[in-house]
Amino acid sequence: MEYQRKGAPVEVKIGITDSPRELVFSSAQSPAEVEETVSAALAGDSGLLSLTDERGRRYLVNTAKIAYVEIGPADARRVGFGIGTDIIAKA
Question: Which InterPro entries is this protein grouped with (predicted)?
Fold first, then answer.
C-alpha cells in the first residue's frame, strides 16, 4: 500500500476504555513500526504504550485501558475554501 512508504505520515487512533473520545495523532513511523511497538507493549510487563507523534510529543497509554488501535494513512489537510465539482460542472 502507498501509505506504507517511509516518510509518509501515519494516523494512529487509540480507543480508551471508559472514555468517549479517542486519542488521534500523526506519526512519522511506518505502519509496521507502530504495530510492532503496540504489540510489544501489549505483550510486555511494563503496562505502558509509548508512541511519539510527528512533532516529537510523546503519548503514554496504560495498556490495560486500550480498547483498540487503528493505524492508517493520515488524511490530507485542506486549507481554504473549496468549490465542489458539481457546482463547477453546472456552470
Answer: DUF3107 (IPR021456)
| Owner of C-alpha cell 473549496 | 82
* 49 grid coordinates: 504504550
CB 18 within 8 A of CB 65: yes
Phi, psi values for residue 24, rounded to 5°: -130, 130
CATH code 1.50.10 for 2-75: no
- Residues in Cβ contact with 2 at an 8 Å cutoff, skipping those fewer than 6 apart: 8, 73
In this predicted model, what pLDDT tens digit does every residue of 3-16 receive, in sequence order?
444 567 899 999 99
pTM for the complete prediction?
0.73
Helix (H) or strand (E) holding 34: helix 31-43
DSSP strand E in 1-91: where?
A: 10-16, 22-27, 48-52, 58-62, 66-73
